[in-house]
């Protein structure tokens, strides 16, 4: 009888212990799930997740929205040759972005190869919207041309117009900038940055290209120009982060200031002011299986110091908050 009671007691203890473990496990799982949900509320980067996007060219157009035009990385990419099909996105609150779909593809261009649609830039001029973009003629990085496409509306599609003679070579990464006087400049180059005034048709250079003096020797690619409070900011990718210089002319010379986003690899950025706040657009390669060939667009706040210099930016998962 005592033996039977002992066996029953042991069985009961085992049963209670098992139930306790199950209950404990369920409690932990619930807590983890709740924490994940809580964390997701504060994670806004990357801002585009349904496709891989890179090289964001951000703008505030006359409709009062922020628009960005991006290159498109493929999920199976092992190099940049498969990049194709630029996309247009718009937002009125900086968090919710509408994908307007593919706006220009290599198949729309009468010269060049499939893929090789690298970092685009955009501009509103002559009451139209333009995309300027690098594309390879033969499928090698040393024979890029700067193509031009146009649309009557920001969401495209964009129609091929032609290409700018005198702007060829390696890894163009063009940036187009219109100053307050209406003059439009093109910036491009790899390892040696170039600038030239464009004619109003955006298909011809109005002058011989100039080499940009920026007070350093770390330029690699991804020229960018913006203006704030009378200062001209020439920024770029140094291969391992974003850096910048300041000047009082779109040609320079510029005074080198150092890092703007120095800890982010492959920084290729653009900057806009929207509803009184400055924003910094860039891409990352470390999200959800990403690589340097499979990237995603992110956004951070950008702030200036009293002397006009830019406060260093750190890549975050939080990103920016929704504008109400």
TrEMBL record:
Organism ancestry: Bacteria, Pseudomonadati, Bacteroidota, Flavobacteriia, Flavobacteriales
Keywords (A to Z) from UniProt: Carbohydrate metabolism, Glycosidase, Hydrolase, Polysaccharide degradation, Xylan degradation
Keyword Transmembrane applies: no
GO MF term list: hydrolase activity, hydrolyzing O-glycosyl compounds
Segment forming the signal sequence: none
Record-linked Pfam families: Glyco_hydro_43
GO biological process, one term: xylan catabolic process
Important for catalytic activity, responsible for pKa modulation of the active site Glu and correct orientation of both the proton donor and substrate (site feature) positions: 173
Name of the protein in question: Glycosyl hydrolases family 43
């Amino acid at each position: 009888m005592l033996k039977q009671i002992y066996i029953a007691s042991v069985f009961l203890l085992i049963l209670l212990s098992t139930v306790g473990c199950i209950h404990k496990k369920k409690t932990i799982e619930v807590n983890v799930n709740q924490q994940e949900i809580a964390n997701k509320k504060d994670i806004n980067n990357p801002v585009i997740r349904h496709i891989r996007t890179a090289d964001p060219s951000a703008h505030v157009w006359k409709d009062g929205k922020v628009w960005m035009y991006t290159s498109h990385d493929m999920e199976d990419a092992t190099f940049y040759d498969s990049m194709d099909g630029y996309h247009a996105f718009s937002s009125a609150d900086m968090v919710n972005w509408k994908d307007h779909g593919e706006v220009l593809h290599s198949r729309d261009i009468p010269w060049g190869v499939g893929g090789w649609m690298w970092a685009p830039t955009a501009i509103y001029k002559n009451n139209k919207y333009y995309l300027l973009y690098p594309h390879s003629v033969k499928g090698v990085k040393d024979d890029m041309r700067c193509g031009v496409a146009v649309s009557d509306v920001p969401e495209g599609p964009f129609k091929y117009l032609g290409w700018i003679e005198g702007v060829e070579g390696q890894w163009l990464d063009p940036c187009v900038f219109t100053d307050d006087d209406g003059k439009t400049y093109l910036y491009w180059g790899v390892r040696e940055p170039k600038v030239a005034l464009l004619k109003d048709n955006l298909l011809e250079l109005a002058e011989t290209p100039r080499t940009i003096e920026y007070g350093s020797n770390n330029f690699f690619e991804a020229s960018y120009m913006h203006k704030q409070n009378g200062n001209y900011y020439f920024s770029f990718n140094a291969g391992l982060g974003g850096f910048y210089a300041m000047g009082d002319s779109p040609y320079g010379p510029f005074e080198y200031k150092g890092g703007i986003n120095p800890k982010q690899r492959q920084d290729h950025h653009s900057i806009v002011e929207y509803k009184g706040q400055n924003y910094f657009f860039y891409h990352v390669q470390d999200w959800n299986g990403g690589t340097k060939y499979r990237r995603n667009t992110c956004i951070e706040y950008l702030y200036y110091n009293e002397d006009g210099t830019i406060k260093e930016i750190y890549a975050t998962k939080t990103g920016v908050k929704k504008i109400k």
